[in-house]
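Example record used in the benchmark description.
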Amino acid sequence: MADNVSREPMLDMFIFETLQLLDQLEQSLISSEKESGFESSIDEIFRIMHTIKGSAAMMLFDDISKLAHSIEDLFFYLREEKPENINSTEITDIVLNGVDFIKNETAKIENGQKPDGDATDLIKEIRDYLSNLKSVNSGDSNSTDSESSGTLEVEKDQKYYISSNRSVSTPKSHKYEAVLKFEDQCGMENIRAFSVIHDLKEIADVNYFYPEDVIEGGGDSEIIQKEGFRVVFSTDLGLDEVKERLSHTLLLKSLDVYVINEDLEDVIGDMEGTGEDEPKEENRQSRKDIVLNDTLQASEQNGNSSDRQPLQEKKASPSGENVAASSKQSVISVNIAKLDKLMDLVGEIVISEAMVTQNPDLEGLQLDNFHKAARQLNKLTNELQDVVMSIRMVPLSMTFQKMNRIVRDMGKKLNKSIELEIIGEETEVDKNIIERISDPLIHLIRNAVDHGLEDAEERVAKGKPPAGKITLEAKNAGGDVWIFVKDDGRGLNREKILKKARVAGLIHKPENELTDKEIYSFIFTPGFSTKDNVTEFSGRGVGMDIVSNNISMVGGTIFVDSVPDNGTIISIKLPLTLAIINGMSIKVGKSRYTIPTISIKESFKVKNEAIITDSEGNEMIMVRGEVYPIVRLHRFYKIDTAVTDINDGIIVMVENDSKVICIFADELLGEQQVVVKALPKYIKKVKGIGGCTLLGDGSISLILDIAGLVDIN
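Model output (structure tokens):
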């Protein structure tokens, strides 16, 4: 454990599991606060803190372990004593401070820094609160103080070492043998077994465990993978409590608990007689193992061992595992970099398949068998692509649930009562998109709380409920995902936005021609803010432009709509994935371009449509009474082409953010799936170009950035 190489996988697993548990803890705390009590979630909260405490202790992160231990003590008291005089908001505040500390320390560990935070003040605050809580509910402060000091005191020089030598201890009333099997390929089985022993020593006398050397032994993980981790212990706890304690082990696949029919010393002697190997079959058959289940009666636990009968037979499946365990789904964690690499390889396969099936050398040849095989290859390639895409798809639930904490904290600071409604959190998007939209959603939620929602008095005066409401909704629509952030607040001030835009010089056409959506879109301009005073949350003119930029970076668009005193709706349209898109190939001279299919409204050849040219030489076309600007790609990118007459080429009408332009090209080449590749680093940002792709004949096609072209025009 001393060298960094052997610690890396342990650290990765600790960081991953701790951050995941902290997110779950936050949601449980906030839900409990809304319910004004911890009755429904106290077991989950206790389990999470217990797991974090054990993991941090195993990794020798003392401050995290001690803080988690103090929070565990608090919820142990709440669970066991069920005090009536508790303030769920106060407890939530205290524990969330502890959660923030553990998150910061874990972030330091993740960045390769030393977790040097001091949790002393937080631990003292939790202990003082627990002491006061006991005092209020028991009325005996002296006994409470002594009990508290005895229970909660954590040694400064804490050691986390488990010896395989059996020590003499006070005899316990129940003796058990437990066999734990972990999920396939979960990793670090020996460290997980170490954690089980560390956990058990708090409630039991651990008499024996196999493999014995779970820390230093090189082959222990393989033994545990195949045979499970076996531990014999004695305790005063009953069956249900033992099973409850052991079932909290992370990534546990199956758990069997046995009562020892013979004297404990004889059983251990049998095990020791076999050396490092499993207890011999004849030794195991010489005693009757009784698998305990929930129907075990007290009389059976205390009765004569010779009269006991098996309460549950241990049936093995052909694979050697329990039937119940085999029906359980196995889940493994995979590094996102590996998924990115897999996606790249699938993209290359898509390109290679197109290069084979669309090879120019095949033109004019009668190849029926080849085309049949090519169709089968195309089918398999599409299936492979769909599977890889589904692996990368992640539900929005964790991102959405994080907003509960933001709404809660801001509501308290601004003295606003707010209800957050979450709809469609099971909607899935690509992992890379999830990472990019978290910050934009935070900004939108903060704006809704600060700008949108009124104070309770103002809402009541307007005939609204005193508590404001924010709705966060997601849904699938074709190949896109829509996210809506709605509030029932005061709405956007159209005149105030228009005034600010006028001062900033953002208006470039007559104001009476501006639609409400165009006026509201000014809020995404850098430095634009309608807030008169700078506060902790807003007023600096940053935030909404970041939202717009981040959404654009993942190929999405954002729309704003608002009704005075009825609220604001911000709609975000996102692609399901960024790696492979459906595109329409067009030709301009000898160059080829690809337009994302989702941006295309229609395509047509000019017949009777009126072409208008303004004083500056800008062309526009009138289609069904509406006028749209024309972008001639051969002029825009200075490409030589024989097709310059508007009547000879093709018009492709595209839309982005409710703005429409018409792209003029030589001809359409057809629709196909393309793999999006980034432009080389030595090429500077080109206006209107979002990337490139490799076509089936080996040529390169530039992918048009429709949002960029629309903004230019």
